[in-house]
Design goal:
The complex is a heterodimer of chains A (289) and B (87).
Chain A (H helix, E strand, L loop, with lengths): L6 E6 L3 H6 L7 E5 L9 H14 L6 E5 L8 H11 L3 E4 L5 H18 L7 E6 L2 H5 L1 H5 L5 E6 L1 H8 L11 H14 L2 E4 L8 H14 L3 E4 L2 H11 L3 H19 L5 E3 L2 E3 L1 H13 L5
Parallel strand pairs in A: 1-2, 1-8, 2-3, 3-4, 4-5, 5-6, 6-7, 7-8
Antiparallel strand pairs in A: 9-10
Chain B lengths: L1 E4 L6 E8 L5 E6 L3 H18 L5 E8 L3 H19 L1
Parallel strand pairs in B: 3-4
Antiparallel strand pairs in B: 1-2, 2-4
The chains are: A alpha/beta (289), B alpha+beta (87).
């Protein structure tokens, strides 16, 4: 079954209680942040805490990421070495602007994997696209390494780079939020939408998450547990959709068994795109085939 | 030869490390649950020191209901900061 990445909850890596509280809300992914939310003077302690937590705690099937500092900073490479050695298997690369950024991380991961005696390609990458240049290079970035499992959009740095302000109607993100899911879909990876910073504005968050789903994003970045619950609701199919999807998938399986070319459901002919959509609905509903 | 890490917050702890030339590992603990978990906290701090190849140090742990992984992490960071202090 494909790994779902509907909700990605960001947690500062230097807060011990986050490691205990965050998994309770069952996000699909947790990103422990070593970058923006950590003071310069606490970069070392955040990294050490993340490493010890990863060695000790069982996060079950929640996908755990380390958001590292940029590789051009004094912390970046150490973040990768230490967290991977501790057991991190997913790295979020911030401010990804071109394929060279990914290739640099890819090479570093290969040398760490060799050093640790683990299979090449084990460590996966999520590329954070947070600048106009990154958006324009998104396709190159997405296909630059087999390690890239998702690309995500970061609106805060994007608006800074663009020299504009973030507004609630997100008009300035129309191009980026349309293009990124398109790229991800073409390459066959996931795309994750930006965070909604105003935690108190649940209505705004819901509206933006619904848009993200319509645009084709696989999931949404979250900064609060209540947002995780809203994302789950929005991305979960309705009971009626599930029932219909189960019928379609069953009919397709039966037709294949009986070597029939035509799939019929309630007297209507069903074609491949509809079967694939039904399978995707069951994936989102977390129903194993 | 001194390093400190952590903060006074829920489920966190402050760890002060004084690196010494001899005397082994000595752990002093201030915690509301010292009676119940003092030995446990001491073990976590000592284990972290040994993992860092530190054999002689005074480690002070001010605990605010922290779990093992936090005690170990804060001890390791405090040791690294103490090493930087030496340099």
């Amino acid at each position: 079954m494909k790994k779902l990445r509907r909700s990605m909850l960001f947690c500062p890596a230097n807060e011990p209680k986050m490691y205990i509280d965050a998994p309770i809300y069952k996000p699909d992914c947790i990103i422990f942040d070593l970058e923006d939310s950590i003071l310069y003077s606490e970069k070392d302690s955040a990294r050490d805490l993340l490493c010890e937590a990863i060695k000790t705690l069982d996060f079950d099937d929640i996908e755990i990421y380390a958001r590292i500092n940029q590789l051009t900073t004094e912390f970046g490479e150490c973040d990768v070495w230490e967290t991977v050695k501790a057991g991190i298997r997913n790295i979020r690369l911030p401010m990804c602007e071109d394929k060279q950024d990914v290739e640099r991380l890819d090479a570093l991961l290969s040398s760490i994997e060799k050093d640790m005696g683990i299979e090449n390609g084990t460590i996966k990458i999520q590329c954070a696209i947070e600048t106009p240049k990154g958006v324009l290079n998104a396709f190159e970035i997405a296909k630059s390494s087999k390690r890239v499992t998702s690309i995500s959009f970061g609106a805060e740095d994007y608006t800074n780079s663009l020299g504009t302000d973030r507004t609630k109607n997100s008009i300035q993100f129309v191009y980026a939020r349309s293009y990124i899911p398109l790229v991800a879909s073409t390459v066959g990876i996931d795309s994750i939408d930006t965070v909604w910073s105003d935690v108190k504005d649940t209505e705004g968050f819901i509206k933006e998450t619904q848009e993200a789903k319509f645009l084709g994003f696989s999931g949404k970045s979250c900064i609060h547990p209540t947002q995780v619950m809203e994302v789950r609701k929005i991305y979960s199919p309705s009971p009626l959709e599930i029932e219909k999807a189960e019928k379609i998938v069953k009919a397709a399986v039966d037709a294949e068994k009986e070597q029939r070319g035509v799939v019929l459901v309630d007297g209507k002919m069903i074609d491949v795109p509809i079967i694939k959509k039904a399978e995707r609905i069951l994936e989102l509903a977390e129903i194993k085939e | 030869m001194f390093g400190s890490a952590g903060k006074e917050g829920k489920q966190d702890c402050v760890v002060n490390v004084n690196l010494r030339d001899n005397g082994g590992i000595e752990v002093k603990i201030k915690s509301k649950v010292n009676k119940l978990f003092g030995k446990h906290i001491e073990t976590a701090a000592t284990k972290a020191a040994y993992e860092m190849k530190v054999k002689n140090a005074l480690i002070e742990v001010y605990d605010f209901n922290s779990l093992d992984f936090t005690i170990k992490a804060r001890t390791k960071t405090a040791i690294k900061r103490a090493w930087r202090d030496v340099k």
